[in-house]
Specification:
367 residues, alpha/beta, 5-stranded mixed beta barrel, 10 helices, binds flavin mononucleotide
Length: 367
């Protein structure tokens, strides 16, 4: 790959596609907003020159699970040239969203390194932008999301492919057997939508603990093996968190690296989020610590991309790497590609810049 780096583009923030001043439900019903609401489809010229898990794509660039709340959002992302959009994580049954607010800007000086444990929320969404998002991975019943996802999948044009994300839900009586059974049921429900690539979120709390599932290698292996029994030829991606060292990644890859088609990393990095008086900023139990994403976590996404690339070589696996975290312009995209990402995705950067895919296609040297 060429070692040229695109010029940093003008990254002034635009009207967001998700309005943080409104509830999740209002965004879900009335969104997307900003340029995603204009209904204009950008025509893409020429034949797709890239490939993502066997699907031709114009650019190996998309939106990770989260900001595309439903089919309307996914369709708008496709129209604006995000060639690999992920439909927000769903579950096998309805789960309510956390109380509003669900998105707040946060003040981070420089990188959000792991020693910065407390951040102050603020009102202004300004560059360099980092936010916290706190939804609790809500879901509607499959009766809603299955047909909605099917319509979004069918909206992909040539050189585009939609990914569906889901996760397991702990049962009320607890227990690993029920938890794994829910992942299997979820995989079956996803398959019925006709989605061509499925992502399972392993950066969610593990059954019986508050630690993340991806840090429990044995449970992750069980989950992946169980899902694989129903997926057939459909590629499986796993979404994982930031791992601070190669040894931990190697343990995970030795367990699941041969069974998955791709690894999407990273999810958010958590910190305590307080208001200017030092009080918990997000209302309700269990919400003092919350996930942070955007520019300040780019270092971690890049580090994890390099780590996955290095360790993939060591264990001799062949999965694709989807680099996520803090991407907000073409130079970021290229940095991820040079770090070893087979595809790159932007959540926060896309939310405040709906033209990001078009900009990257204009400015990145390989596109
Ligand atoms: C509004 C919002 C909602 C999110 N919801 C999910 C989700 O449902 N499932 C998931 O795996 N990740 C979710 N994420 C995490 C993103 O997929 C991504 O890993 C993270 O935001 C880092 O990327 P970024 O720096 O480009 O925002 C969400 C992120 C945002 C901003």
């Amino acid at each position: 790959m060429e070692c040229l780096t695109a010029q940093r583009s003008d990254t002034r923030l635009q009207a967001p596609i998700y309005d943080p001043s409104m509830s999740y439900q209002d965004n879900f019903d009335r969104g997307p907003f900003g340029e995603f609401a204009d209904g204009v489809r950008i025509e893409q010229a020429g034949k797709p020159q890239h490939s993502f898990l066997g699907h031709p794509v114009h650019a190996p660039f998309g939106v990770p699970a989260g900001p595309l709340l439903n089919g309307k959002f996914v369709k708008a992302a496709l129209d604006k040239g995000f060639d690999i959009p992920v439909y927000k994580t769903v579950r096998t049954r309805r789960v309510a969203c956390h109380e509003w607010p669900n998105v707040l800007a946060v003040d981070v000086e420089g990188d959000l390194t792991l020693d910065k444990t407390k951040l102050v929320a603020k009102d202004d969404y300004a560059e360099p932008l980092s936010i916290t998002n706190s939804f609790g991975v809500p879901s509607f019943d499959p009766d809603f999301w299955q047909p909605d996802m099917a319509v979004a999948v069918a909206h992909a044009g040539p050189g585009q492919v939609v990914v569906g994300s889901y996760q397991g839900t702990k049962s009320e009586r607890g227990g690993a057997t029920d938890y794994i059974a829910d992942f299997i049921l979820g995989a079956r429900l996803m398959l019925e939508t006709g989605v061509k690539i499925i992502e399972v979120n392993l950066s969610c709390p593990n059954e019986g603990t508050s630690a993340l599932l991806c840090f429990d290698v044995e449970r992750s292996r069980e989950v992946v093996e169980a899902i694989k029994t129903v997926l057939g030829e459909i590629p499986l991606l796993i979404k994982v968190a930031y791992f601070p060292d190669d040894a931990a990644v190697e343990r995970l890859l030795r367990a699941v690296g041969g069974a998955v088609s791709g690894i999407c990393a990273i999810n958010t990095i958590t910190a305590e989020i307080v208001d200017e008086n030092g009080r918990q900023a997000l209302p309700g139990e269990g919400r003092l610590r919350s996930g942070v994403c955007g520019r300040s976590i780019k270092w971690a996404g890049l580090e994890m991309t390099r780590r996955l690339s290095r360790v993939r070589e060591v264990v001799g696996a062949e999965f694709s790497i989807i680099g996520v975290g803090g991407v907000s312009d073409a130079a970021d995209y290229e940095e991820y590609r040079q770090a070893g990402a087979d595809a790159v995705m932007a959540a926060t950067g896309m939310m405040w810049n709906p033209q990001l895919a078009q900009q990257i296609k204009r400015e990145a040297h390989e596109l």
